[in-house]
Amino acid sequence: MASVHTDLIRRHRRILRQRLKKLNERNGTRYRLGQKNIDLLFYLNYIRFAEALATKAKQMAVIEGSSEVMHQHWQESGNELLETFANENRL
User: Fold this and answer.
1) How far apart are CA 69 and CA 71, in angstroms?
2) Dihedral angle at the C-alpha atoms of 14, 16, 22, 23, nearest 10 degrees?
3) Fewer beta carbons under 10 A from the terminal one: N or C of the chain?
4) Which InterPro entries does this one have (predicted)?
5) Segments making up each domain of the chain, as ranges
6) What is the pLDDT of residues 11-39, one digit of tens each?
């Protein structure tokens, strides 16, 4: 069974691929995964997502008064952030 983190990475990567597909359709370009600039942009976007995820999960744990970040904090913050990142910079 995949961990929460692995599942969120897969979902985030799927969103990025969909964005790339829409970008190519809209602009008539042929960008694809594997090109240096595209991979770098996706990696930087992933780093941004991971940092926001960790911050949000920690905030949720503090609000609930938990001394550690638990599975539910990661899951809830991940779902919320995926929606935010999916809607951000819509192509």
Assistant:
1) 7
2) -160
3) N
4) Histone-fold
5) 4-86
6) 877 887 888 888 788 878 787 766 667 77
CA distance linking residue 16 with residue 85, whole number of Å? 9
Residue with tokens 């609930």: 64
Question: With respect to CATH, is domain 4-86 assigned 1.10.20.10?
Answer: yes
Question: HSE on the CB side for 40, CA within 13 Å?
Answer: 3
CA angle 84, 37, 79 (to 5 degrees): 20
CB-based contacts of 91, cutoff 8 Å, min separation 6: 19, 22, 23, 26
> What digits encode the pLDDT tens for the residues 30-77?
877 666 677 777 788 888 888 999 999 999 999 999 889 998 998 999
Residues 6 or more apart whose CB falls under 8 angstroms from that of 17 comprise 33
